[in-house]
Structure formats: C-alpha cells, structure tokens
Amino acid sequence: MIRAAIVGGSGYIGGELLRLLSSHPHVEVVACTSRRLAGRRVDGAHPNLRGSTELSFVDDRELDSYDVVLLATPHGVSVERRAEFEALAPVTVNLSADFRLADPAAYRRHYGKAHADPDALGSYVVGLAELHRDALAGADRISIPGCMATAAILALHPLVQAGLITGSVQVDARTGSSGSGASTAAGNSHPERSGSMRVFAPTEHRHQAEVEQAIGLPVRMSATGVNAVRGVQVLCHCVLADGVTEAQVRQAYRASYAAEPFIRLVAHRRGWYRYPEPKLLSGSNYCDVGFALDREGGRLVAIAALDNLVKGGAGNAVQSLNVRYGWPEQAGLGFTGLHPS
After folding, report:
1. Sorting pLDDT into bands at 50, 70 and 90, what band is 131?
2. Of 4, 105, 148, 284, which is the most exposed, with the fewest CB atoms less than 10 Å away?
C-alpha cells in the first residue's frame, strides 16, 4: 500500500481523485490539502464521500513525505513551487496545464506568456496510457493532458497511425460546466449558464497545442460550453487520404484499441446511442470513440466522448499510476457509468 497526498483537494478534480482512490486496493490517501478549508472534514466539500473517508483538509505548507503526490492545483501554481512539491515524494502526478507541452514556444503562443521553468518542459511523461504505456512504466513525473485534448487525441490517433487522414484537422469541442472548476467566475454560475450554448473559444483553444503535439498534424480547435455539468464531446473534421474506405477506418480503430480496457468503439448504423454520448459515461473512466464518413467521399468526422473529470482528469491520473506501479490497469476504475442518468 502506497501513501498518497492530494494537493488542491477541495476542487472537482481533487474530489474525484479522493472518490476513485478511496476504493483503490493499493493506494491510501493520507493527506488532502486546502488552505481555505484547513481543519475541516473532506466530506464537507465532497458530500458524496460521506462514510468513505475520515480525512480533514490540511494546509499544503504542512505536508510531510509520501510515496506519491497528486497535484490538482490551479494552473501556474505547480510550476512556481515545483521543487517544493517534487521533494515531497519520489513520484509526482500533475493534473494542471503547467507541464503538458514540451515546446516553450508552443507554450508561449497558446498561454500568452513565457513558461516559468522552460527547462522542465518535456521532462514529464504524458499521462495517457493508450499512447504512452511503456514510458509511464517507472515514470517519476507524469503530466495529465487536458480533457478535450484527451478526447481529440484518442479520436484521431488511430487514423494518423494508419495514415488514413491528411492535411489539417478541425476540432469542435463541447464541454460541461464542471470544466470551469469549483471556484468559477460569475458568468459560469447556474443562472447564467443554464440553457446556454456559449462559444468561449471560437479559435485557438489551448488544448489545440496538445493535440498537435500528439498527432503531428496541424489542428484548429474551437470550444463551446453546453448545458451539462459533466462531459466532453469532440467532433474532429478530417480529410481522408485518397481511396480510404469505411472498412479501413473501422479496422484502424479496432487495431489500436482492441486490447484497451477503457476505449470502446461506438459507430453503429442505428439506435439512439450510435455515436459516443458523454451522458452515458458520467463517473466512468471510459472514452468512447466513433466516426462517420461523408457520403460524397473524402471527408470523415471522428467523434469521442468522455467524463471531463474522470478520463479527462482524475481517472487518467489513477490509470497512469496503475501503469507506473505495474498494478492492474482497472484498479479503482471499475465504475461503468449510468443509464439513465
């Protein structure tokens, strides 16, 4: 049993880490931080955990030493305090955006400022087992990709690997309100958000850089907030290479993901849920992928859906830990989602 600390435990991602690890057979969370709530019980901020934990929040300046530290901090915090956090444990799992990109120029372009520790960029293994399983085994620094980036990468990776698409890709992403975090601006409050479909990034969403880094093709990305709490769905508009058939596309997905425990191909000809639907994935670590070809030929829409807080965040972190320590990959991640929900 390894001892884990969660830094930034009062937010939605911190709460999901606690939920998933509370039933993990090989991990015990022994510390969970929040300066604002220090001394108060964890299940006050996360009432779904009543009866699952007796922990109280602690100030992050009072942390000791652990086997692994999971950083669910606001963007920018972990880079400023990297040496401090990494001294707490031999393994660090970072769920912020601070170390997702390897190129300092790409970071400056998409985040509007220079990275505070550019020499550290590229030193973290990307926490996406489907693409980086070998590198994750034994990794001491792991960076979990963004939720919309994860969905787009998993939708596009098999097509790129098989050489089935060419040129640039347009990613149209939709996300629920929990992606804004527990401490959100007034514009994301329920009265403002309810019933709306808010285009908050019509061009150049930051996750665009992560997708480009992963697939090696030019990407253009837009993002819309929809009237849901959880969930991400991406539609990736691609140009097919000459002569590519539907059978080749389907085979590419099967070849890439047949042995993957958390990827399911959902591309049926009929039924209410014939394409990936985030509602069905709430609380689970699954990413459903699918596709549709333009009947006039030459174009394909690759589709993916996931829970932004689980496969798009905390679940990916737990899955990466499982790979890193050689545990069964599904440990702590057995929940299948709900229907209806």
Report:
1. very high
2. 105
Give, in order, the Cα–Cα distances in Å from 32 to each of 65, 210, 219, 269: 13, 29, 37, 46
Question: Model pTM?
Answer: 0.95
Tokens of 127: 């926490």
Q: How far is CA 129 from CA 36, 112, 177, 315, 320, in A?
A: 34, 29, 26, 11, 6
Active-site position among 32, 147, 236, 238: 147
The encoded tokens of residue 248 equal 């080749």
Torsion angle of alpha carbons 148, 99, 103, 300, nearest 10°?
-10
161 Cβ contact list (under 8 Å, min separation 6):
252, 256
Name every residue whose Cβ is closer than 8 Å to that of residue 179 and which is 6 or more positions away in sequence. 147, 225, 232, 308
Rounded to whole angstroms, the Cα distance separating 158 from 130 reads 11
Alpha carbon dihedral 49, 334, 132, 320, in 10-degree steps, equals 30
- Between strands 68-71 and 91-94, the pairing is parallel
What is the band of 183 on the pLDDT scale with cuts at 50, 70, 90? low
Among residues 131, 162, 169, the alpha carbon closest in space to that of 251 is found at 162
The string of pLDDT tens digits covering residues 27-68 is 999 999 999 999 999 999 999 999 999 999 999 999 999 999
Active site residue 236: no
